């Protein structure tokens, strides 16, 4: 339908990000006192995959969240275009503030439980179609580490998103539930691979005031998502320009998603057609960081690179397929259990039509 098309899945995971500290052995191979006080399995997990550059990716929902940003903003543009007839000139300028709190607990000599609670709020600058809102997400994952080179995990996700549609005073409430699977594999001293699979199901309810009535609609939504990242690790002993104690991580990543919105009959008796959305992207970056060796240690991080969208069902509205990526962060280990990190991340479209920026205050506990 062209009239009164309702956006029903705008907030599935905008800006959901967290991070984990990069723990390492001391330069002479010894572990620190704080590491030995943790459970053996969590220390082994962090030293092995932190040094390999995989912990930052595994513990982060950044790429997943940005993928939802692109799809959801595209749907926002699509619905506005259907209702207004304006097919171009759309821009995205979104700011997100986020506080993720996570805990990693060893439960045996080869198994752990990871729990993450992430709260964020987002707001977009005024445009033809724009929104603000908030999202809360809880993730609980079982991790199994049968060897120093391999870890797999399976877990559950619960999420609630609320979105305010600024261009028409509408609102959307969207509870989600789903599963997540991870596979981390360290191929050798220099290269490692992280894979993630996510499946989520939701039930979005939208309300849009029309003056003479309030248009309501409810749609079932489902998504499947796969992400794969190849990450390298090189130290200052191998890269001459690196400061002492720093690591460089080249990264090549891909993400693919399919999102389905079911057909429905809205409160005015009009049918809303089933919608299937496809998205895929590739990303190449360089990440520089200084690992944490013990309590009181600082961990500066810097990452930059490029992203390209291969497929996006709605990319014609903002006309952006290529992006600059940049990230800067500073973390500190506090005591033997807590790592605190402040970070700023942004994506900028080549044509200037899209800018996403996120401010994060991250708390990571390890036991």
Automatic annotation (TrEMBL):
<dbReference type="InterPro" id="IPR036709">
    <property type="entry name" value="Autotransporte_beta_dom_sf"/>
</dbReference>
<keyword id="KW-0732">Signal</keyword>
<feature type="signal peptide">
    <location>
        <begin position="1"/>
        <end position="24"/>
    </location>
</feature>
<protein>
    <submittedName>
        <fullName>Uncharacterized protein</fullName>
    </submittedName>
</protein>
<keyword id="KW-0614">Plasmid</keyword>
């Amino acid at each position: 339908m062209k009239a009164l098309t309702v956006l029903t899945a705008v907030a599935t995971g905008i800006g959901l990000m967290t991070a984990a500290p990069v723990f390492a052995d001391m330069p002479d191979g010894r572990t620190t006192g704080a590491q030995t006080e943790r459970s053996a399995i969590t220390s082994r997990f962090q030293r092995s995959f932190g040094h390999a550059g995989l912990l930052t990716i595994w513990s982060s929902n950044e790429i997943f969240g940005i993928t939802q940003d692109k799809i959801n903003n595209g749907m926002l543009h699509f619905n506005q275009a259907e209702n207004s007839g304006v097919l171009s000139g759309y821009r995205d300028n979104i700011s997100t503030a986020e506080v993720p709190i996570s805990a990693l607990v060893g439960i045996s000599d080869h198994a752990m439980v990871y729990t993450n609670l992430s709260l964020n709020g987002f707001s977009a600058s005024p445009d033809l179609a724009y929104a603000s809102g908030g999202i809360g997400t809880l993730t609980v994952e079982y991790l199994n580490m049968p060897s120093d080179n391999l870890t797999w995990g399976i877990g559950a996700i619960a999420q609630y998103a609320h979105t305010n549609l600024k261009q028409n005073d509408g609102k959307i409430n969207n509870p989600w539930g789903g599963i997540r699977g991870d596979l981390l594999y360290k191929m050798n001293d220099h290269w490692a691979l992280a894979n993630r699979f996510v499946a989520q199901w939701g039930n979005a309810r939208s309300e849009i005031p029309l003056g003479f009535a309030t248009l309501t609609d409810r749609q079932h939504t489902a998504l499947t998502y796969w992400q794969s990242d190849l990450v390298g690790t090189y130290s200052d002993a191998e890269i001459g320009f690196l400061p002492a104690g720093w690591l460089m991580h080249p990264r090549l990543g891909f993400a693919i998603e399919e999102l389905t919105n079911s057909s429905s009959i809205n409160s005015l008796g009009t049918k809303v057609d089933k919608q299937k959305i496809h998205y895929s992207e590739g990303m190449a970056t360089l990440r520089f960081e200084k690992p944490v060796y013990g309590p009181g240690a600082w961990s500066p991080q810097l990452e930059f690179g490029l992203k390209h969208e291969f497929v996006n069902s709605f990319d014609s509205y903002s006309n952006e397929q290529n992006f600059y990526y940049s990230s800067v962060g500073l973390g500190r280990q506090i005591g033997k259990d807590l790592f605190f990190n402040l970070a700023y991340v942004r994506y900028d479209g080549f044509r200037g039509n899209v800018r996403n920026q996120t401010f994060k205050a991250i708390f990571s506990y390890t036991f």
